[in-house]
C-alpha cells in the first residue's frame, strides 16, 4: 500500500466515524443555550460497558458454600480462585448459596454489599428457552454461529438472527424515543468506542466521542504523523466545498460538513464546562468513563433528557496466561466502575444513571491448561442508585462439568436471555410497552419478560 492509499484509507475511516454523528446531530446554535438550564427531573441514562473478548465471570463471582465451591474448584483446577481470597458477599440468591467476588474487584464488592450493584446470573444469547437436552437434540432454534466473537457480539447488540438491514436494540430504543426525550439534534446514543451495531437504528445513529473529547478532522491528534496540518485542512475544505454532482458523494460531503459543525459546538460546551472532581484511574477505560461523566454533567446544556452511552473495553479473550491477565482486567473494570458511580453521586444523578456490563460470551467452565476458551452464558453487573442491589437475579448455573447447563466442553447454556436482561434496562429507561416487541424480537418466547433488578 503506497502513501496515497494509506492516507486515503485514514481519511475515509475517520470521516466515516465522525460523519455518523453528523448525519443526525447538527448542533448549530448549541453554544447559545443556557448552560445553567434548570435540571430535568426525569433525566435517565444507560451506560453499557462492553467487555470485548468474553469475560470469565465464573472467576469474577464465585460460590463460597462448601459443596458448591468444591464443584467449582474441581472444574476450574489451576484457574480456581482460592476460597480464602474471595471478598465475601451475602446476597439473597435463588439457590441459597453464599458467594464471593474476586479479590481484584473490591470496589464492585463494596457497591454490591452496599446495595448499589446487582449480579445477573448466567446471561447470554437465546432465541427461546434452551435446556441441555434441547441443545443436544438440536430441537430449538439457536443464535447464529455460537462461540464466534463477531457473531455473538452482533447478536448481543442486535438480538436479530438475520435481517437485511440489521439494527441494534439501543438504536431501536432511540428510534422510538428520540423525538420525545431529546431537545435539539444531538443523538440520544453516544459511543466511546466508534461505530457499533447496538446503537444503530433505522433513523438514529450514535454520536462518536473519544476519551479526550470530540473526534473530527480538525483535531491535530488525528493528523500527527500524516503530514502538515495546512495541507490536510485544504483537502477537507475542498471535499466539503465542492458539489460533485453525485448523489452519494454529496451526501457524504454534507455529512462531513455537519460533523465538523457538531464537533466545534460540542467541543465548546465541553471546554467551558466544570471539570469532574472525582478521581478516575488513568486507564483507557477510566478515561472513557470520565468523559461519559462529563457528558452527563452537561445534560442540561445539551438539551438531553435521555442518553445511552456505549463504552468498549477489550482484552478479555483469555485463552492463555489467564491467571495474570484476568485479575488485571478485573482490577481496571472495578476501579473504573467505582469511580464512575462516585461521580454520579457527586453530580446528584446516581439514581438516574444505570451502568451495566455486556460481553461476547462467558468462558468455558473447563481450563485449557493456561486459560479458558469461548463459552456461552456469563454473569453480568448492573450498577446505579436505582438498582435493587446486594442480590442475584436470574438463575445461577450449577458449576459442574456435564451438569444441567453444560452444553459440552464446559460451555454453560444461559438461563437468562439477553432480551430479558436488556428489556429490563429499557423498561426503566422509559421505553413504552407498545414498542417492546419491536425492540426485543425474541422476548415473546419467554414467560418472564423482565427481571426485577430495576
Question: What characteristics describe this protein?
Answer:
13 strands, 13% strand, Alkaline Phosphatase, subunit A, alpha/beta, 454 residues, 38% helix, disordered N terminus, globular, three-stranded antiparallel sheet, ten-stranded mixed sheet
What does the model show?
The structure is a single chain. This protein has 454 residues and is α/β, with parallel strands linked by helices. The protein has one domain (41-214, 281-445): Alkaline Phosphatase, subunit A, CATH 3.40.720. Helix content is 38%, strand content 13%. It contains 14 helices and 13 strands. Strands 1, 5, 6, 7, 8, 9, 10, 11, 12 and 13 form a ten-stranded mixed beta sheet that branches. Strands 2-4-3 form a three-stranded antiparallel beta sheet. Strand 7 and strand 8 form a beta hairpin. It is globular. It starts with a helix and ends in a 15-residue tail after the last helix.
Write the layout of secondary structure elements.
Elements: H1 3-22, E1 44-51, H2 57-60, E2 61-63, H3 66-76, E3 87-89, E4 99-101, H4 106-113, E5 117-124, H5 132-137, H6 149-158, H7 169-181, E6 189-191, E7 207-210, E8 213-214, H8 220-223, H9 229-241, H10 247-272, H11 284-297, E9 306-313, H12 322-347, E10 353-359, E11 378-383, E12 392-393, E13 416-417, H13 418-429, H14 436-439
Parallel strand pairs: 1-9, 1-10, 5-12, 5-13, 6-7, 6-9
Antiparallel strand pairs: 2-4, 3-4, 5-11, 7-8, 10-11
Helix pairs in contact: 1-10, 4-12, 11-12
Amino acid at each position: 500500500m503506497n502513501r496515497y492509499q494509506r492516507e486515503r484509507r485514514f481519511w475515509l475511516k475517520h470521516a466515516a466515524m465522525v460523519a455518523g454523528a453528523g448525519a443526525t446531530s447538527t448542533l448549530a446554535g448549541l453554544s447559545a443555550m443556557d448552560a445553567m438550564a434548570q435540571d430535568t427531573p426525569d433525566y435517565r441514562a444507560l451506560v453499557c460497558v462492553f467487555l470485548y473478548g468474553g469475560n470469565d465471570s465464573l472467576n469474577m463471582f464465585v460460590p463460597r458454600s462448601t459443596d458448591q465451591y468444591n464443584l467449582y474448584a474441581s472444574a476450574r483446577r489451576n484457574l480456581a480462585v482460592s476460597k480464602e481470597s474471595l471478598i465475601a458477599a451475602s446476597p439473597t440468591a435463588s439457590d441459597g448459596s453464599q458467594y464471593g467476588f474476586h479479590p481484584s474487584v473490591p470496589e464492585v464488592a463494596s457497591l454490591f454489599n452496599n446495595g448499589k450493584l446487582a449480579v445477573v446470573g448466567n446471561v447470554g444469547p437465546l432465541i427461546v428457552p434452551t435446556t441441555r437436552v434441547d441443545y443436544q437434540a438440536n430441537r430449538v432454534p439457536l443464535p447464529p454461529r455460537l462461540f464466534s466473537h463477531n457473531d455473538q457480539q452482533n447478536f448481543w447488540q442486535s438480538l436479530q438472527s438475520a435481517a437485511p438491514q440489521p439494527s441494534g436494540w439501543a438504536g431501536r430504543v432511540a428510534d422510538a424515543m428520540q423525538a420525545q426525550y431529546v431537545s435539539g439534534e444531538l443523538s440520544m446514543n453516544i459511543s466511546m468506542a466508534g461505530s457499533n451495531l447496538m446503537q444503530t437504528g433505522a433513523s438514529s445513529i450514535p454520536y462518536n466521542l473519544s476519551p479526550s473529547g470530540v473526534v473530527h478532522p480538525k483535531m491535530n491528534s488525528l493528523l500527527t504523523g500524516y503530514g502538515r496540518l495546512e495541507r490536510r485542512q485544504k483537502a477537507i475544505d475542498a471535499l466539503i466545498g465542492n458539489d460533485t454532482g453525485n448523489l452519494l458523494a454529496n451526501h457524504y460531503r454534507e455529512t462531513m460538513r455537519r460533523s465538523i459543525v457538531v464537533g466545534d459546538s460540542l467541543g465548546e460546551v465541553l471546554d467551558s464546562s466544570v471539570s469532574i472532581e472525582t478521581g478516575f484511574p488513568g486507564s483507557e477505560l477510566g478515561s472513557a468513563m470520565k468523559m461519559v461523566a462529563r457528558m452527563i454533567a452537561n445534560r442540561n446544556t445539551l438539551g438531553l433528557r435521555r442518553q445511552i452511552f456505549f463504552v468498549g473495553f477489550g482484552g478479555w479473550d483469555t485463552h492463555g496466561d489467564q491467571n495474570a491477565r484476568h485479575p488485571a482486567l478485573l482490577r481496571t473494570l472495578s476501579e473504573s466502575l467505582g469511580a464512575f458511580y462516585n461521580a454520579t453521586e457527586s453530580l446528584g444523578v446516581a439514581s438516574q444513571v444505570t451502568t451495566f456490563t455486556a460481553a461476547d460470551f462467558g468462558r468455558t467452565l473447563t481450563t485449557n491448561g493456561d486459560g479458558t476458551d469461548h463459552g456461552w452464558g456469563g454473569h453480568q453487573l448492573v450498577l446505579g442508585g436505582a438498582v435493587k442491589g446486594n442480590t442475584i437475579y436470574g438463575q445461577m448455573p450449577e458449576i459442574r462439568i456435564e451438569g444441567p447447563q453444560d452444553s459440552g466442553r464446559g460451555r454453560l447454556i444461559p438461563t437468562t436471555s439477553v432480551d430479558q436482561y436488556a428489556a429490563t434496562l429499557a423498561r426503566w429507561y422509559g421505553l413504552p410497552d407498545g414498542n417492546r416487541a419491536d425492540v426485543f424480537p425474541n422476548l415473546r418466547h419467554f414467560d418472564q419478560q423482565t427481571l426485577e433488578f430495576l
